[in-house]
């Protein structure tokens, strides 16, 4: 007698065998204790309370006492196919052409991080569109070999992403993939309808998406264990900033910063030329930001630059909301992203 049991559709990634990765560090219990209240701060942008002790990580083995970053942006390609008014790419042509990071440099940086046992997030974006990189899967394969404890992440505008590519990216080890569906106009409000429209076009309508309100706006979320995909519709005016003064077309994005910044303590940002920057908002090809390049990784090691005097000076100043060393920070209201915290509910 034929079975009457109904088959349940599952995303293809559910049927792909993936290699397990190391678990993430659990949230520290002392954050809710009375003793730690003096160490806590609350982001006025997000309302999320966090504790400076959350910033503690295993320190680097060069005796500096500086913690490893939680998040490394290793921008391996140059091109972006968009020119958004809320991004410095929208004010010039630097990102119109493709250029890949030299493979030997990529191998050098990832090898050094691997030798240190780096187990944080590793993303291949900054001001580029990473899925336009023709060797993206070769890079993921290399990362899996030399950085087995790292958590690969991809942030994309989703213009070229379709279901087969998404399935392949997750099977290749990507643990977090964010699709940001930017509107044509900054004042356009986010809507679930526009996100669902993109999902249908990408061949992802059948995936069991959950609708959520997120820091940036609205999102469709799919999650299996530690693997997460978010399709975000941002509310640009409410959630974005002026990238340290590099965005001039939308002056309403500029506002004075009054809270401490922990980006320089938790995040490393390297551009496609191998330049370690103060943070991800730095656009070093503009004169006003050229001074925020920490150094060139074709000439120095990651450890030297991350623990050096310039980066350490920024960390100390930013922890007390002192922008005298980095005037560009005075108009930047970038909150500490979820991937830089020990947990999203820190």
TrEMBL record:
InterPro entries: 4Fe4S-binding_SPASM_dom (IPR023885), Aldolase_TIM (IPR013785), Radical_SAM_PqqE_MftC-like (IPR050377), rSAM (IPR007197), rSAM_sf (IPR058240). Residues 1-39 are annotated as: Disordered. Signal peptide: none annotated. Residues 21-35 have a biased composition (Polar residues). Residues 261-333 form the 4Fe4S-binding SPASM domain. One of its GO terms (molecular function) is metal ion binding. Keywords: Iron, Iron-sulfur, Metal-binding, S-adenosyl-L-methionine. Pfam families: SPASM (PF13186). It comes from the Bacteria. This is 4Fe4S-binding SPASM domain-containing protein.
């Amino acid at each position: 007698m034929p079975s009457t049991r109904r088959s349940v559709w599952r995303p293809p990634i559910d049927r792909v065998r993936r290699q397990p990765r190391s678990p993430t560090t659990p949230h520290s219990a002392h954050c809710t204790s009375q003793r730690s209240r003096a160490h806590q701060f609350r982001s006025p942008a997000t309302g999320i309370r966090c504790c400076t002790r959350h910033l503690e990580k295993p320190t680097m083995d060069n005796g500096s006492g500086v913690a490893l970053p939680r998040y490394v942006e290793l921008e391996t390609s140059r091109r972006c196919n968009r020119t958004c008014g809320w991004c410095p790419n929208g004010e010039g042509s630097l990102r119109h052409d493709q250029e890949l990071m030299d493979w030997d440099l990529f191998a050098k940086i990832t090898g050094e991080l691997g030798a240190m046992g780096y187990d944080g997030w590793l993303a291949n974006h900054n001001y580029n569109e990473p899925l336009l990189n023709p060797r993206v899967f070769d890079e993921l394969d290399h990362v899996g070999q030399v950085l087995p404890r790292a958590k690969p992440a991809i942030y994309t505008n989703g213009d070229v992403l379709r279901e087969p590519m998404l399935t392949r990216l997750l099977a290749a080890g990507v643990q977090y993939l964010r699709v940001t569906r930017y509107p044509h106009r900054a004042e356009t409000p986010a809507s679930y309808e526009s996100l669902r429209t993109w999902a249908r076009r990408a061949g992802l309508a059948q995936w069991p998406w959950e609708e959520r309100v997120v820091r940036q706006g609205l999102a469709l979320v799919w999650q299996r264990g530690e693997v997460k995909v978010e399709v975000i519709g941002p509310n640009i005016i409410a959630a974005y900033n002026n990238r340290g003064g590099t965005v001039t077309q939308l002056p309403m994005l500029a506002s004075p910063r009054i809270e401490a910044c922990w980006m320089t303590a938790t995040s490393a940002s390297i551009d496609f030329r191998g330049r370690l920057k103060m943070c991800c908002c730095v656009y070093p090809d503009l004169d006003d930001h050229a001074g925020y390049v920490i150094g060139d990784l074709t000439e120095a090691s990651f450890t030297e630059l991350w623990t050096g005097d310039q980066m350490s000076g920024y960390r100390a100043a930013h922890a007390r909301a002192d922008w005298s060393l980095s005037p560009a920070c005075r108009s930047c209201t970038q909150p500490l992203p979820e991937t830089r915290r020990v947990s999203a509910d820190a």
